[in-house]
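Blinded run. Sample ID left blank on purpose so nobody reads anything into the name before looking at the predicted structure. Input follows.
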Amino acid sequence: MSKNEQAVIDDFSDEDKQENEQLNFWNVKEDKEIVGIVKVVEAGNYGGKKIGLKTNDSEDELTFIPELTALNSKLKDLVVGDKIKIVYLGEEKSKTSGRMYLTFDFFLKKAE
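Blinded prediction complete.
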């Protein structure tokens, strides 16, 4: 280590710990279908959206759609008040990359 560099000291305590935001995510493999009213649309990761739905299954808590590549393009124009239905169809193998990916049907009724 050179003179200009300082050693990195682990001086963290429990007070410095950052908690992850706990969100209720839709588990596509357990519940193959979700229907809800869009209540939250925020910028997400990797060009996706953070989308929270009010569903019949969640009383006061929103259910969030996982930010999956297969859904990002379908969900990009959603606004609060839209009604959506997403149906998980299963996994398919990409013809170009050979990787497996999840597939979905997507239904939309725009907010009036």
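Unblinding after everyone has recorded impressions. The first strand starts at residue 33 and ends at 43.
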